[in-house]
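User: Hi! I have a protein structure encoded as tokens and I'd like to know what sequence might fold into it. I'm fairly new to this, so please keep things simple.
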């Protein structure tokens, strides 16, 4: 069951325990045929896979955090890559000792609740490969 509600340009999403954040964002973006939008959220998570981008090697260096964490802030966007919705998110989260971590989010599993908001835009925003950087960036 998809647990979200759209009101005008705002899409409110409640991600259930055991579901993955970016996977859910992609599902909603596909159902709503989004072409661009801004994402924010908070919640409680585990199995967090984040990374930083090594600009010299042109690769993401990944790390997995498998304990339970407080999702302090999730921000990102939905755009189009190869004419399909593409989710790009960054995350900050903390452990039980209040240490904070963050980076580019590949995905994270919800352990209690996660509340997300997409501010949808009618603008069709595509991504295009920037060969110098090695990433698909906004094609404005």
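Assistant: Happy to help. Inverse folding works backwards from shape to sequence: for each of the 140 positions I chose a residue that suits the local structure. Here it is:
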């Amino acid at each position: 069951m998809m647990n979200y509600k759209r009101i005008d340009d705002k899409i409110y999403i409640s991600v259930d325990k055991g579901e993955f954040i970016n996977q859910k964002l992609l599902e909603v973006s596909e159902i709503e045929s989004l072409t661009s939008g801004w994402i924010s959220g908070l919640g409680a998570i585990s199995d967090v896979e984040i990374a930083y981008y090594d600009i010299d090697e042109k690769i993401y260096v990944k790390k997995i955090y498998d304990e339970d964490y407080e999702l302090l802030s999730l921000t990102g966007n939905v755009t189009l890559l190869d004419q399909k919705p593409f989710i790009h998110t960054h995350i900050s989260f903390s452990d039980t000792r209040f240490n904070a971590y963050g980076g580019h989010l590949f995905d994270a599993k919800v352990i209690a609740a996660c509340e997300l908001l997409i501010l949808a835009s009618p603008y069709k925003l595509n991504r295009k490969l920037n060969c110098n950087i090695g990433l698909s960036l906004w094609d404005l």
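A useful reference point when you look it over: The chain is about 10% helix and 65% strand. Feel free to ask if any position seems puzzling.
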